[in-house]
Amino acid sequence: MAQMNLLHAINNALDIAMAENDSALCFGEDVGHFGGVFRATSGLQEKYGKARCFNTPLVEQGIIGFANGLAAQGSTPIAEIQFADYIFPAFDQIVNEAAKFRYRSGNEFNVGNLTIRSPYGGGIAGGLYHSQSPEAYFAHTPGLKVVVPRNPYQAKGLLLAAIRDDNPVVFFEPKRLYRASIGEVPEEDYQLPLGKAEVVKQGTDITVLAWGAQMEIVEKAIEMAANEGISCELIDLRTILPWDVETIAASVMKTGRLVISQEAPLTAGFASEIAATIQSECFLHLESPIARVCGMDTPYPLALEKEYVADHLKTYEAIKQSVNY
Amino acid sequence: MRALLQSTHLTYGQKTQTIIKMLGEFSDPILDTRWLFVSLVRKADNKENVMNSEVYKESPVVHQPAFIDGHSVEIPILKILQQDGSVYDGADLPNIDQALATKIYKTLAFHRVLDERMVGAQRQGRISFYMAALGEEAASVGGAAGLEDQDMIMAQYREQGALMYRGFALEDFMNQMFSNEKDLGKGRQMPIHYGSNELNYMTISSPLGTQIPQAAGYAYGQKLQGKDAVTLCYFGEGAASEGDFHAGLNMAAVHRAPVIFFCRNNGYAISTPSDEQFVGNGIASRGVGYGIKTLRIDGNDILAVLKATQLAREYALKENKPVIIEAMSYRLGAHSTSDDPSGYRTREEEAKWQAHDPILRMKNWMLANKWWDEEQEVSLFESLREEVLAAVKVAEKIDKPPVEDLVTDVYDQVPKHLQSQLDELKQHIKKYPESYPFTAGRIK
Predict the structure, then answer these.
(1) Which residue in the list A80, A130, A216, A305 is annotated as catalytic?
(2) Structural domains in chain B?
(3) What ipTM was assigned to the predicted interfaces of this complex?
């Protein structure tokens, strides 16, 4: 075990993936010598050469188009989009190409080797265009897997699984936690399962569900609730698509209540999908309406970020209201 | 901080490192704001980087503004074969012998017959849609003939000729167009969206231009793995307006991918003529802008197409660099069976281009070489028409794909939620079997 922050854990996973597979490539804007604007690919070009870790021109659709071609050819591209806010020029290459490559060809061709990494989320004074959480756009696209880790240990194990998974994976990294989140991470190779949520803390009164950086915020909220004698079961969804209905439903059948907390705006966010499915799976077990604690339905603000976000206090309030319903 | 950013004696890297160190010493809770400063450095240094580039060093210096005209690049057009079948004086022939010429010619003939019959089949309501390549068959057939079998072809949609040349069987074409259970694509895409892993022909995707940056990536992978192979990427002059075209050319040039970008400039994107699509000197001038070796050819001249592709392949493989070929042609038919060209162009214009028929041109050359005669011609076209008609009758009787094919290949394995959606659907079909006649009888 070693102490790593989330960036070290990502860098370590990429290092392992590139060492074991000669056809694994890391590329994106400023990814080469500079090691990425957050340093996630630091040292990889020195170690594996310019042909396997390199800068690309500033063209997100080009980066993902290039990556799709590489994956179809049999290489293992790990493409970086510098900020999730800038992933949209590549939207067509992701949702119309990567996601449908296998289906449309009857599995004559596929881009299962593709992994797209991108820092997402707010809390860093990044304003509209360095703060977004766009996971729901991709969760609406059959053929993709969408994964969001919450800490360094999860990041390494889930990223290695994403790279080795035989489906295109969009891997959103919580950039607020890149250096802020530090934890014990095994130096050796390991994987965590995709499509599987994790019950982080057992509880009896209410289920609280989140993913990525929001997990840290929700943990504060359930501590506050615990002080008032409310026992929360905390679950990290980890994979947004395909998501683990069973684990969430089993927990809600036990507790009878569910609060979902997400960074992204409320309307048509992934919390909405979860709420719809869980009310249908657990209707007769529910003691109160499923609550969603989310960003507001506005672009991500700057000066009023603190007011806007789904913070621990808003989550705490939702927990109390649900329990007292 | 500003003094640091503006300093001229430090490199970009040094400035960045200094800033990162400085920020690291702050007890700022938002440590990650450091990237903001890093991007400021990048902006500040942008000018300096350009000034240091080779391009700048090579520029002659002037002291009065001298605009370069947008049309100043002169681009010649390669022609080898004349319409009467004679070769232009001084023209070099591609590598071609009677066997290759005959294979190319028979493929062209097959192409024309298939298109003619399938447009007819669409009009009779037997298939839903078709796209003919009447008048520009030489571009796709000649392009494939200039490659080796291991080269990947990533086409747009009107290049069935390349797939025919590679040996995709008549039944395979039919099964795809009739979306039956023998279609390699499992009946999921509209007619003409062919693909074959075995024949290195990437399955067609409807969105325009998406294959262009993919071809750059595919070729880069071929290069890294030391394959004796290139990628040829077809697209039309209309698709060259898509962002993916510019993205793909630049990616290929910067990363030195052995890819041949083959533009079929057929004058129209559905109804939009090329002079409403772009103003510059065709698509070839784009190649020059991206620093890519560029060649414009007569796309109705099978020998020019073959020569260009053979040379492009050799160059791409040897130099590990992309090439762009702009083949000038004309779409004599409609864009697809869903439009009627009389709404956007004149009969006179079409007649002018009919006189440049690429297949007739090749036939004249074959006849002049005594590699072909009229008797062979008649018998070839007759037998092709019969074969195609017979194949239509077989393919239209084959069952649609099973209902299970709805959920396979979305992922490598069928996930739980899709399995349960399929199970639900089967129950529903069983309840209303008369409404789902293709699948109801086959559900267990």
Answers:
(1) A130
(2) 2-58 (no CATH), 77-395 (3.40.50.970), 403-440 (no CATH)
(3) 0.97
DSSP B192: T
Delineate the domains of chain A, giving CATH numbers in brackets. 2-185 (3.40.50.970), 198-323 (3.40.50.920)
Chain A: residue whose CA lies nearest to B208: A92
Tens digit of pLDDT at every position of chain A (325 positions): 999 999 999 999 999 999 999 999 999 999 999 999 999 999 999 999 999 999 999 999 999 999 999 999 999 999 999 999 999 999 999 999 999 999 999 999 999 999 999 999 999 999 999 999 999 999 999 999 999 999 999 999 999 999 999 999 999 999 999 999 999 999 999 999 999 999 999 999 999 999 999 999 999 999 999 999 999 999 999 999 999 999 999 999 999 999 999 999 999 999 999 999 999 999 999 999 999 999 999 999 999 999 999 999 999 999 999 999 9
**What CA–CA distance (Å, rounded) separates B280 from A141?**
38
For residue B155, how many other CB atoms are within 10 A of its CB? 28
Owner of token pair 């014990």: A184
Nearest-by-CA chain A residue for B227: A73
CB contact under 8 A, B207 and A97: yes
Any A CB within 8 A of B433 CB: no
Is A60 marked active-site?
A: yes
HSE at residue A46, side-chain half, CA atoms within 13 A, is 6
Beta bridge partners of A261: A293
Q: Known catalytic residue: A281?
A: no
